[in-house]
C-alpha cells in the first residue's frame, strides 16, 4: 500500500469469475452429477439401458462446459432432444442440460446465451407437448421453457454483476495507479525545488565566501586591514548560508507544498540592490539599473531575484567584468538582462545546473529565458509576466 492509497488486490490468475459465482458453479456441478447418477441408477434398476448413452453425453457436456461452453450448450440441446424420446422422459438429464446453459450465459456474449436458451426452451416446449400429449397452455408444457428462461436469466444476471465488480476493481486499480503517479510527481517536484533552492541561495553565498577568503589570504601579511575586512565578509556570508539553510528547513518541515513559505523566505525585487552591492564587495564591477513596477506578484519577484542572482554568479565564475545588469518593465512584462564579457568563446551549456535552474524559475511563473553567447559576450535575457494569474490556463 502506497502513501494514502489503498491497493486493490488483483484477481488470481486462472480464475475467470468471482468467488461467489465459482461456488455456485461447483454446487451446480454437484447437482448435475447427482441427477446423472440418479438417472443411470434408475435405468439399471429397471434393466433398461436406453438412456445410458444420453447420460454419458450429458456427463461429457457438464465436464466440458467451462472450457467449451458453446459446444457443451449444443450438446445439451441434443441431450434434451434425446431425453424426450426416452420412455420416461429422462427428466434428471434435463438438469445437466440446464447447467450447461447457465455456464454458457456466464462465459459467452449475451446474444449467444439468449439464442441457445430460446432454442432449448422451444425444443422442450414442443417435446413436452408431443411426448406428454398435453395442451399447448398446459402447465406441464410451460414449466420447462419457463424454467429454462429463468436459468439463462440467472446466468446473465450473475454475469452482469460479475462484470460490474470487475469494472469497479479495474477503476480502483486505475485510480490507485493515478494517485501513486501523482504522489511520485509531487515528490519529484519537491526534490527539484529543494535542489534549485540549494543551488540558488547556498551555492551563491558560499561562492562569495570563497572569494572573500581568497582575498583575505592574499592580504594577510601585506594589508592586514583589508584581510580583516575580507574575513568579516566571509563571516557574514557564512551567517547568510546558515540563515538560508534554516529557511529551507522551515519550508521542508511545514505542511503543504511549500510554495508560499519559499516565497516568503526569499527576498524579491526589493533585495536586488543589496544583491548587487554584495557582488561589488567581491571586487566585481556591476552596472545595475532597475525600474520596478508598483504592482507585482510575489512569485514573479522571487523568480526575478533568483535569475539575477544566478546570472551574476555565473558572470563572476565564467566571465569578466564589467557586468551590465538591468531590470525593466512595461504594462505586462518584467524583463531581466545580464551581460558580461568573456575571455574565450562561451557555450550555453557551460552553466551547469545554473541555466537549467533559471529556465525552471522562469517557467514556474509562465515566463521565458533565453541565453545568447558569442565569442565576446554572454547574455541572459528573461521575460516574466507581472501577474501570473493573467497567463494561467488549463494545464
UniProtKB/TrEMBL annotation:
<keyword id="KW-1133">Transmembrane helix</keyword>
<keyword id="KW-0547">Nucleotide-binding</keyword>
<dbReference type="GO" id="GO:0000155">
    <property type="term" value="F:phosphorelay sensor kinase activity"/>
</dbReference>
<keyword id="KW-0808">Transferase</keyword>
<dbReference type="GO" id="GO:0046983">
    <property type="term" value="F:protein dimerization activity"/>
</dbReference>
<dbReference type="InterPro" id="IPR011712">
    <property type="entry name" value="Sig_transdc_His_kin_sub3_dim/P"/>
</dbReference>
<dbReference type="InterPro" id="IPR036890">
    <property type="entry name" value="HATPase_C_sf"/>
</dbReference>
<dbReference type="GO" id="GO:0016020">
    <property type="term" value="C:membrane"/>
</dbReference>
<feature type="transmembrane region" description="Helical">
    <location>
        <begin position="113"/>
        <end position="134"/>
    </location>
</feature>
<feature type="domain" description="Signal transduction histidine kinase subgroup 3 dimerisation and phosphoacceptor">
    <location>
        <begin position="190"/>
        <end position="256"/>
    </location>
</feature>
<feature type="transmembrane region" description="Helical">
    <location>
        <begin position="68"/>
        <end position="85"/>
    </location>
</feature>
<keyword id="KW-0812">Transmembrane</keyword>
<dbReference type="InterPro" id="IPR050482">
    <property type="entry name" value="Sensor_HK_TwoCompSys"/>
</dbReference>
<keyword id="KW-0067">ATP-binding</keyword>
<dbReference type="Pfam" id="PF07730">
    <property type="entry name" value="HisKA_3"/>
</dbReference>
<keyword id="KW-0418">Kinase</keyword>
<feature type="transmembrane region" description="Helical">
    <location>
        <begin position="140"/>
        <end position="158"/>
    </location>
</feature>
<keyword id="KW-0597">Phosphoprotein</keyword>
<dbReference type="GO" id="GO:0005524">
    <property type="term" value="F:ATP binding"/>
</dbReference>
<keyword id="KW-0902">Two-component regulatory system</keyword>
<protein>
    <recommendedName>
        <fullName>histidine kinase</fullName>
        <ecNumber>2.7.13.3</ecNumber>
    </recommendedName>
</protein>
<keyword id="KW-0472">Membrane</keyword>
Amino acid at each position: 500500500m502506497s502513501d494514502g492509497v489503498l491497493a486493490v488486490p488483483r484477481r488470481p490468475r486462472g480464475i475467470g469469475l468471482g468467488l461467489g459465482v465459482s461456488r455456485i458453479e461447483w454446487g451446480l456441478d454437484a447437482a448435475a452429477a447427482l441427477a446423472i447418477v440418479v438417472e443411470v441408477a434408475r435405468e439399471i434398476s429397471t434393466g433398461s439401458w436406453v438412456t445410458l448413452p444420453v447420460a454419458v453425453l450429458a456427463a461429457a457436456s457438464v465436464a466440458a462446459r467451462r472450457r467449451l461452453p458453446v459446444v457443451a450448450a449444443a450438446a445439451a440441446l441434443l441431450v434434451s432432444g434425446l431425453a424426450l424420446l426416452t420412455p420416461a422422459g429422462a427428466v434428471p438429464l434435463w438438469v445437466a442440460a440446464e447447467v450447461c446453459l447457465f455456464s454458457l450465459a456466464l462465459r459467452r456474449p449475451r446474444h449467444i446465451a439468449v439464442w441457445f436458451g430460446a432454442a432449448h426452451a422451444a425444443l422442450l416446449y414442443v417435446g413436452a407437448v408431443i411426448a406428454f400429449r398435453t395442451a399447448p397452455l398446459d402447465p406441464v408444457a410451460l414449466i420447462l421453457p419457463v424454467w429454462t428462461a429463468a436459468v439463462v436469466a440467472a446466468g446473465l444476471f450473475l454475469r452482469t454483476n460479475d462484470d460490474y465488480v470487475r469494472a469497479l476493481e479495474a477503476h480502483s486499480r486505475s485510480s490507485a495507479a493515478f494517485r501513486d503517479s501523482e504522489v511520485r510527481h509531487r515528490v519529484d517536484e519537491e526534490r527539484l525545488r529543494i535542489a534549485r533552492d540549494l543551488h540558488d541561495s547556498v551555492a551563491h553565498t558560499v561562492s562569495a565566501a570563497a572569494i572573500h577568503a581568497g582575498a583575505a589570504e592574499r592580504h594577510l601579511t601585506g594589508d592586514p586591514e583589508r584581510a580583516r575586512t575580507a574575513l568579516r565578509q566571509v563571516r557574514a556570508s557564512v551567517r547568510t548560508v546558515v540563515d538560508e539553510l534554516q529557511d529551507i528547513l522551515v519550508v521542508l518541515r511545514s505542511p503543504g507544498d511549500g510554495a508560499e513559505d519559499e516565497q516568503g523566505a526569499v527576498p524579491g525585487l526589493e533585495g536586488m540592490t543589496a544583491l548587487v552591492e554584495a557582488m561589488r564587495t567581491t571586487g566585481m564591477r556591476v552596472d545595475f539599473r532597475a525600474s520596478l513596477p508598483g504592482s507585482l506578484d510575489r512569485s514573479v519577484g522571487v523568480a526575478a531575484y533568483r535569475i539575477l542572482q544566478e546570472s551574476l554568479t555565473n558572470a563572476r565564475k565564467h566571465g569578466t567584468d564589467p557586468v551590465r545588469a538591468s531590470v525593466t518593465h512595461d504594462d505586462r512584462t518584467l524583463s531581466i538582462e545580464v551581460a558580461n564579457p568573456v575571455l574565450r568563446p562561451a557555450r550555453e551549456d557551460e552553466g551547469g545546473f545554473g541555466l537549467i535552474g533559471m529556465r525552471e524559475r522562469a517557467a514556474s511563473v509562465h515566463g521565458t529565458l533565453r541565453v545568447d553567447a558569442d565569442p565576446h559576450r554572454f547574455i541572459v535575457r528573461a521575460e516574466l509576466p507581472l501577474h501570473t494569474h493573467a497567463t494561467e490556463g488549463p494545464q
